Amino acid sequence: MWKWWYLLLMVPSLLFAAEPLRAVVSQTNTAPYAIFDPQQRLVDGIAKDLLDALATRLNRPVQYLDLPRGRVVEWLLTDKADIACFLNPQWVPASYKLSWTGVLFHTRQYIVRRLEDSPVRSNQDLFHKRIGTTRGFSYPELQPLFETNAAVRDDAESLEKNIQRLEQGRVDLVMTVDLSYGHYQQQFDSSKLAAEPLWAQPAEVYCALNPHHALQIEQIQQLFVLMRQQGVVDKALKRWAHTSL
Hints:
alpha/beta, 5-stranded mixed sheet
């Protein structure tokens, strides 16, 4: 006997079938999560791979919304957007008001330094350091340091600009994640840089969902379960993985 949710997925929703899936993909999502062309259009990356696959299974077009990261929750809660990926409930305010997919994958944070500088292996190695971070991103493991001024958070809009500032001596360290730094290494010379994994456990990554449409929530949640089972998520990640890390 088919499970009820499988029937739900197979029967197009009369309410949503013709409407676009409004997906937030911000330019603060560094490559390879999101890759934009010079006209600021999303043209490639893990976000496009996964959301295009999701929209195909929903039989709906996708409307990509490039929003500042600080407005993502507002747009989901006010029914201006349907989905935003690469988030974690610990990273966003009022996460309990949103709906969520299951865990899509795990990501590990890295700390990038100049090769001649000392390795970073604990919070104590961050004392009195200026740390290059990405605007709009949350760093729960480092927040106590920032709040007590034991370390300085210094935002930029991209990993490339942060590493440029690192090489110029304007910041002491740069925060990034495994896939983003691996992609950077494929594009640029990183021979004068070193990277150590953050001591925290790899973070769980989800998609946040507009909480106002129960049928749409169930469809998307179950489709992501199927996409994981069918290897769609792993295929998107492996496409962009880099072996150096």
